[in-house]
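Lay summary. Proteins are chains of building blocks that fold into shapes, and those shapes determine what they do. In this project we predict the shape from the chain. Here is one chain we studied, written as its sequence of building blocks.
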Amino acid sequence: MMSGVLRLVLFQARRDRVTLPVWILGTTLLSFATSTAVATQFGDEASQVAILTLAASNPAFLFLRGLPDGTGVGAVVFFQGYAYTAVLAGLMSTFLVVRHTRSDEEPGRADLLGAVPLPRAASLVATLVLGVGVNLLLASFVAAGLIAAGLPVAGAFVAGAAVGVVGVFFAGLAAVAAQVLPTGRSANSAAAGLVGAAYLVRGVGDALGTPSADLLHVASTWPSLVSPIGWGQRARPFTSPDPAVLLVPLTVAVVLGTLALLIRRGRDMGASLLPERHGRARAGVGGASLVGLAWRLQRCAVVGWCVGAAAIGAVAGALGPLVSETVSSVAPIRDLIARLVPGGQAGLVHIFVTALLGIAGRCSRSV
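And here is the predicted shape, written in a compact code that computers can read:
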């Protein structure tokens, strides 16, 4: 059996020989670029204190970025970039798992694998093994990118592990979604939506956190503990490294993967816990055209992303004035923003809203 699973792992890896390197290298370049940008713009302690003070005193920045954890280039890099790289790891893992499970069952490709003398869940085992291996590789590359940018080696590996653990968590979650939902599109949408929900829940927990007296640290509230991203940032790689906290999302990932395997062993090929609804015998007026067909196939995803974008827009509108008020009241932060956006004519609220909506646009394009 082990040799058969290994062959399936190699087969799936060969199918993703282009997709996975793009995800891994793109995430690594993001980590490296964030590190070099922080070292350039916030290399001195005064600039670091200014940006951390701004973040700790404003829920909007805590919602977007995460928890400030003291000065130092490594600490600021982790604060600025970890949440985004963790989201990328989660999306990469969910798409990988669904692609090799539910999306293979829909057109019948999985039937060919089911014809060989292997256990029913062998293909899912291979997918989970591949998911874990890819996230280990991603963690190593992220750590290498941080080290190449001049950050401490030990902290870089803990930061890379925090990213990889989030990916492993969502690989297990996507495996469950692939067993429960009847189509690859629905499983992808649900799993990717849960990645976004983890980011938002972490943001709420951080935004409601308690800042320290010097405004260089923030202690998050309980909603952050619901999210694997929230647990990952508690590793604090460049101040007080604590990789043991990563065992919590890793344990949940093992439970989710085991649950997915149990469900797979008990269901028929192509079946799902939530059966697909049968459509009407005849198409309506809209379904008789190509545009109507495209809308019917994509409407759930479009509506879901529109609702998510509307929620982000509501957050931007509510938090924008707070950003403007905080920045305008602190002279060092005003000078820092002026240096980061030299000659900018747009108001600070406009810049903040544009940045926040840009996140929504990048997430929607990734799907």
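What the prediction tells us: The beta strands are 210-211, 218-219.
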